[in-house]
Design a protein that fits this description.
The chain is α/β, with parallel strands linked by helices. It has helices spanning 13-25, 44-54, 62-69, 77-85, 88-96, 136-142, 221-230, 234-242, and strands at 2-6, 31-33, 57-58, 100-103, 107-110, 123-125, 131-133, 150-152, 160-163, 169-172, 180-183, 189-192, 198-206, 209-217.
């Protein structure tokens, strides 16, 4: 059994196209999507057209929720720009997405955690702004009652796998379209991939054990960085160009 996992595309259609081409080159047909599809100062409409046509099992992320719950004038900049580029049927598709889902009776999917779409599952942020792996016991607490051998989450944009003591595997595939960002909650912090590539994961079931392969894919990230700069987002431009916020 083999499939691909994407997450956090954030309106970057060039990164998405490159990842989908790489997935096809691996001979993989099945794809699941962990949300945060469109929000960003890039190409939300083009990204939406690709994802709707893909028809992959998709769960809703926190930024997907903001796009359908908030009035445009109340949105943060990335959501507001994306909302203006989306059509009514794109927004209807977001409304149709579930908070969580199960793939092939094997994998539990959510954007962040089973209870909250805006909390890191695998990472914690210290008061001085450093982000690091949570203790295993805290990670396991979020998995209480999730009785599937594979658990998939996104949100932090950090490719990571954690094996729980009972054998369940939690995997974050990283971000397709946004290699660096900053956030104020719970404390101000930066997440920086340190590279401009698009990230995703391939899941293989080998001798009844799920094994992840993390992949980074090159694409025309300079074009997306230039677009972000044209849209007045120098932070996004830096992240897309280099994987760092400078």
């Amino acid at each position: 059994m083999r499939f691909a996992v994407i997450a956090d595309v954030h309106g970057n259609h060039l990164a998405l196209e490159a990842v989908l081409a790489d997935i096809r080159a691996q001979g993989i047909e099945d794809i699941v999507n962990l949300g945060d599809c469109f929000s960003g100062p890039l190409t939300a409409g083009k990204t939406a057209d690709i994802l709707l046509a893909l028809d992959a099992l998709t769960v809703r992320g926190n930024h997907d929720r903001y796009l359908i719950e908030q009035a445009p004038e109340m949105m943060h900049a990335s959501d507001r720009v994306a909302h203006a580029d989306l059509s009514a049927h794109h927004l209807d598709w977001l409304r149709s997405l579930p908070f969580s889902a199960v793939y092939q009776g094997e994998a539990y999917l959510c954007h962040a955690t089973p209870d909250n779409d805006n909390v890191y599952w695998l990472e914690t942020v210290s008061s001085d702004g450093h982000i690091h792996l949570k203790p295993l016991e805290e990670i396991a607490t979020f998995a209480t009652g999730i009785d599937f051998p594979l658990i998939l989450c996104g949100h932090s944009h950090i490719p990571r796998a954690v094996r729980l003591s009972g054998g369940r595997l939690i995997v974050n595939p990283g971000s397709v379209g946004c290699p660096a960002y900053d956030d104020d909650l719970p404390y101000y912090h930066k997440v920086e991939a340190g590279h401009p590539f698009a990230s995703y994961a391939i899941m293989d079931k080998v001798d009844s054990v799920w094994v992840p392969t993390f992949r980074q894919v090159g694409y025309d990230h300079r074009a997306m960085a230039d677009l972000a700069a044209q849209n007045g987002r120098t932070d996004w431009a830096s992240g897309l160009a280099t994987g760092w916020l400078r």
